[in-house]
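User: Structure with adenosine monophosphate, tokens only please.
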Amino acid sequence: MAKIAINIATGSLQKEEIIVGIDLGTTNSLVAIIHPDTKQAVALKEHDSSSLLPSVVHFDEHSNIMVGEVAKTMLVQAPERTIFSAKRLMGKSYNDIRDNAGNFSYKIIDDNTESLVKIQVGDKFYSPVDLSSYILKELKHRAEHILKTPVNKAVITVPAYFNDAQRQATRDAGRLAGLDVLRIINEPTAASLAYGIGISREEHKTIAVYDLGGGTFDISILRIAGGIFEVLSTNGDTYLGGDDMDHAIVDHWKKSLNISENEIQKDLSLNQSLRLHAETAKKQLSAEDNYEAALGQYKLKLGKAEFETLIHPLIDKTIQSCKNALKDAALKTTDIDAVVMVGGSTRVPAVKSAVGSFFGKEVNDSVNPDEVVALGAAIQADILAGNNKELLLIDITPLSLGIETAGGLMDVLIPRNTKIPSKASRQYTTQVDAQSGMRISVFQGERDLVQHNRKLAEFNLSGIPGMLAGLPKVEVSFLINADGILTVAAKELRSGVEQSIEIKPQYGLTDNDVEKMLLDSITHAKDDISARALAEARTEGEQLLKTTERFLQKNASLLSQDELLKTAAAMQALQLAVTMEDKDLVQAKTEELNEISRPYAERIMDEAVSGAMKGKSI
Ligand code: AMP
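Assistant:
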């Protein structure tokens, strides 16, 4: 990648731009390149220090930022100013992480909404994108220092289970760190590249990539043939990893040493100290049979057999995921030619043996499990730089993508496990006469009702010329590019009214947003987010008022006097609410009107001659 060229005009040496591969991990992150001489992927490290940069960010009293090993040491002294596992929060709202909020020793703002989470340190607020950007910036500096050349381009890996919002958030973090993110690739895909399986065109193999890191677990089944890597299925658990082993040990010690929650409350650093000891114990037990240490008055002890009993349920869960992944790929364990291990937690001997016995073969752990993903990212970077044209990558969508149709149903356009890039389109029609706009709400997930899935984005197709209900033909098309980023467009075919709209996931940022974020002071971030939430709530309220009005003009006769009065009262309340600054109020009043009017729509639909409706109504 780091090719040298001679500029003929000046006679000077020109270094071609380096593209680095970055594994932005939950626990540790690192950067790798293809060595210009050996052509081998290598993880970058300063002298004899580790290639791993702990994914920990610490803010001192003056809001100075420290990243990595120094920050990690502050976990005990200043847990509330030291942020670990920020990757778990990428692209998430408080509602998404509510059940796990107790696992974080720092303050996550509980705004009880669907807005992006923010972390409070002192009087400042940081988003997970900000925090990840600090880690990426550190890796960029590290690479520049070691390579003595500017580093501006990168391939960054994400877990296979990351949804669009999380991929977009990772891309944004790269941008904030001053990196041009050429490609976001799945970690298992990177890992398989690093193992080099299938590099020779003659090789045909089906492999399982078992990735147990600090905070996430992924199992991916890949088919490799003719130099093409195809992900057949993925499964896993975004809340399962080495951290959970640490927690299990901490809980065990708390119980066996009678450490009460009271004591922990009094001394917050005690919990962190226990956590660090637990991790040390776990690592030691990968090589030895016993762990012993003193922590103040407490004697911490753990035997290997005891440890294996503690983590047995965790390992069992991963094996269940392996079964599910095989089922999705319609394969049996005997169809798997090789099993490769990724992630620091696969160093635990009990993990290796459980996976080995499930698949019925020795696992492949020859590449350093901490570095394998970054090494694969470097290989992908090399392919993008045009140095390795032999390889082609095919990824898949981890979750189904679709839109909301009448009755709050999920209509899937692109099913999960579809190979990407991918395209799909379907026609829809209007629900009421002269309907001029149509709201397209895009969701991701596997449940039948959209309320259980994740909303990615929403937009209005407006300007549909007046037609009877059921006549307009609105074609909605989905396009997922090679990075797994989705673009949705809508077009009314009958009138030729064409309004195609590119959307980014709701939690993603537009180019302008990123610039604004750089300029805006971090303290304004919270206000920005509530302003946007208010605007969104108002749009939704106004939209509902319009539809209800139109509905009443047409169908008032179908409603009873009581229903008409109730509807009018709810409309009036919503009309008032949208003029005020209270998002919750707007939402509440919108919901109230929705509650009242939803059954009407269903009633009309039942009564309407279904034959008049060519497609499905949105
Ligand atoms: P990763 O997210 O891949 O960086 O994985 C890091 C996880 O691997 C952390 O939970 C570490 O505690 C764990 N880990 C690292 N080395 C070992 C080891 N020798 N034995 C057991 N777990 C380890």
